[in-house]
Structure formats: C-alpha cells, structure tokens
Specification:
Elements lengths: L2 H21 L8 H13 L3 E6 L3 E7 L2 E11 L26 H15 L7 E9 L8 H6 L8 E12 L3 E3 L2 E4 L1 E10 L3 E2 L9 H17 L8 E10 L6 E2 L2 E10 L2 H21 L3 E7 L5 E3 L1 H15 L4 E3 L10 H4 L4 E9 L18 H19 L2
Parallel strand pairs: 3-4, 3-5, 5-16, 6-15
Antiparallel strand pairs: 1-2, 2-4, 6-16, 7-14, 8-12, 8-13, 9-11, 10-12
The structure holds zinc ion (2 copies).
One zinc ion binds next to loops.
Length: 389
C-alpha cells in the first residue's frame, strides 16, 4: 500500500480525533482528557507510552525493527480562554474555552503519523518519539518536558504549526531564526515619598519612570544594529495611589522584549537593567529588574530545512513551498530546537478566499481540516523518514 493510500485510510479517524478535541478543549496544564485519549490511541497502536510527563504531557516511542537515529515529533495540545464563535457544528462544548490556535489539529496529526509509521515498523531503522506537550500558550510546557529527559538520545526534531491565514496546501518555512524570543520584565523603581508641593524633600518616582520609558526606546533605535530585529515595549506604568498631592515612593514598569539572536537578547536584557539603574541612581533613587524569561527564539537548522523543502516539494509542489518572513510571536518549540537540530514549519490551513479566514486566537478561528490535516500527516511522515536517514 502506498503512503497516500495509507493516509486516505486513516483520514476519517484523523478528522474525528481533531473534531473531538475541538469539542472538548482544555487549557494549559489541564489537558487531562486530551492526553488520556491520545495515550489510549497510541497504546492501541502498540507504542510504548509514558503518561504524566510534566503534568499532562505524553511521550510515545515507536521503535523500528533495526537500530538507527532517533527523531522527535513534537505536538502541543492546549486550548485558549476564548468563547468560540466559529459556528462549526463541532464547536467547543466548554464555555469560555476554545481551540483557537489549531493545537487540536497538531495533536491529531502527530498521533496519526504514528498510525501510519507503525505499519512500516519492520523496515524502520531507529526510533520515532512522539512528544505531546502541555501549555504551549503560556510558554510553560516544553521546558519541563525537556527537563524530564524527552530529548535523551534524540538526534533531530520536527514539528508543524497550522496557519489559518495561509491557504490549505501551502507550506511556509525558513532557515535560521523564525520566531522571536519573548521575555517579560518588571522594573521596580524606588525614590522617596514626599508632599507634592515640596518635591525637593523627596525623590520623584513618576519623573524617574517617565525618563526611564523614554530612555528605553533608545535601546532599539540607537544601540541595535538597524539590520537586526528587536522590540522593547513598556505595556504597564504604575505609580501613586490616586492622590493629586503625593509624590509616590515607588513605581513599577512592565514590558516585553522580543529578539531573535541570543547575543542581542542578552545584551538588551543587561542594558535594560543598566539604563533603569543609571537613571534611578542619577535621580537619587534605585531600580531593580525582575525577568520572567520566555522561550528562546525558534531557530531552524539550515541543512535540515533544505531536506524538508525537498520533501515538501514532492508533497505539495514546488510553487506551494514558500520561504516566509520571521514573526515576532514566540513558540516554546524553541526549547527543543535550541538543544537539537530540527525544523518547525507552517502548514497553511485556511480558505483560498482570504476574507473567510480569521487569525489565530480569534473567536471565529477556523481551519480547513479536511484539506490540511492529511497533508500534515504526509509531510511529517515523509520528513521523519528522511530525518531518520
Ligand atoms: Zn496560540
Ligand atoms: Zn499555537
């Protein structure tokens, strides 16, 4: 039986699984039902399944008849706190929770790659390790999976993200940095409280905050190579308790840093602290920065991207394999790609008439699962077979 015939055979199960997950979405670290369904399915195929990795995560090993490389297939499975308004007959049955990013599709695709590959076990050289991680949307699930050892013995990794704004059947990929590192920071400023009519008695943290916000904007515009990419945004400014006549003792600034290159990321992290501390000190106060590091940038291995492209061209045709620009959004697939060479690619899953498509995280998010999902299985299956070589 050809690969296409095998995929056609499992397509009803693939769609049913995705739509079942869609009807029963679960938030980050609460993917109990999803994880249990996947575990049952994969155990039914005869894979070696480990449940409860990093909470609700799951690992399934498919060992070929002969030794060889180990390729890791990564899928996420969490939903979002959104009330669904897509109008599909298999809409979410859980109020306020929706699969609005396509992770239901990712999980179903990866499980069905296993269903296809298990038929080739006798000729398979090496191991295919399927990793279903929790909590991608809060960028918290991949790291504990890695710490639990899922990368041990892994040579290469691969994963996909469905993309609703790209017509079904198109594939997007780029070598090198593809998605940004996203780090959150909080700046704590301390001055000296005083009567607003006697500013000379105090150290004004409102003025300190204002200078700091303005000065931070020079980090990208004046200190970063214009050819490179970074974003520094202050999203929250807090000072004072609502009085007209009190100089507040403290102020808090919250923001995000987005970068692609590790050196630039580290430098800007350092410079944000230095600038804030320098301004505070110059004004007679003090500052300290608290970081909530996100995942690093998603960086694809150029050689493996080239191999993936060859595979993708055979599946969807050369004109449908696009080199896409990097995006400033993050994805914790980076935790795997930062430690092993691999490829993370976009698979178009939208309609060919663009006004029908809704962006990810939109209440009307919709994907053409009938067209996109079987292609996802074929692309991943063939890529795994290529990466095992
Ligand atoms: Zn998302
Ligand atoms: Zn997503």
């Amino acid at each position: 039986m050809s690969l296409k015939e095998a995929i056609a055979q499992i397509t009803p199960s693939l769609l049913a699984m995705r739509r079942d997950f869609h009807q029963h979405p679960e938030l980050a670290f609460q993917e109990v039902r999803t994880s249990a369904k996947l575990a049952e399915f994969l155990e039914g195929l005869g894979l070696e399944v480990t449940r409860g990795v990093a909470g609700t995560g799951l690992v399934a090993r498919l060992k070929g008849a002969r030794p060889g490389k180990t390729v890791l297939v990564r899928a996420d499975m969490d939903a979002l706190p959104i009330q669904e308004a897509s109008g599909v007959p298999y809409s979410s049955q859980t109020p306020g929770v929706m699969h609005a990013c396509g992770h239901d599709g990712h999980a179903a695709i990866a499980a069905h790659v296993a269903a296809v590959l298990v038929r080739q076990r006798e000729s398979l050289e090496g191991e295919v390790r399927f990793v279903f991680q929790p909590a991608e949307e809060i960028v918290a699930g991949a790291r504990p999976m890695v710490e639990a050892g899922v990368l041990e013995g892994v040579d290469r990794v691969v994963g996909l993200h469905l993309y609703s704004l790209m017509p079904a059947g198109q594939v997007g990929v780029r070598p090198g940095p593809s998605m940004a590192a996203a780090d959150a920071f909080t700046l704590h400023l301390r001055g000296r409280g005083a009567h607003a009519a006697m500013p000379h008695e105090g150290v004004d943290t409102v003025l300190m905050a204002a200078h700091t916000v303005v000065a931070l904007q020079s980090l990208v515009s004046r200190e970063t190579d214009p050819i490179k990419t970074a974003v520094v945004t202050i999203a929250t400014v807090q000072a004072g308790e609502g009085a007209h006549n009190v100089i507040p003792e403290t102020a808090v600034l919250k923001g995000t840093l987005r970068t692609f290159e590790p050196e630039l990321r580290e430098r800007l992290m350092r410079r944000i602290a230095e600038l804030a501390q320098g301004i505070a000190a110059a004004m007679g106060g003090s500052a300290w920065v608290e970081w909530k590091p996100g995942s690093p940038a998603v960086v694809n291995d150029p050689d493996l991207v080239e191999r993936f492209r060859q595979v993708a061209k055979e599946v969807v045709g050369e004109e449908r394999v696009l080199e896409v620009p990097p995006v400033m959004g993050g994805d914790d697939m980076a935790e795997f790609l930062n430690r092993r060479p691999g490829v993370y690619f976009w698979l178009g899953a939208g309609s060919s008439s663009p006004d029908q498509n809704r962006p990810h995280h939109h209440p009307g998010f919709w994907i053409d699962d009938e067209r996109a999902l079987p292609l996802g299985v074929e692309l991943l299956t063939r890529t795994v077979l290529d990466f095992l070589r």
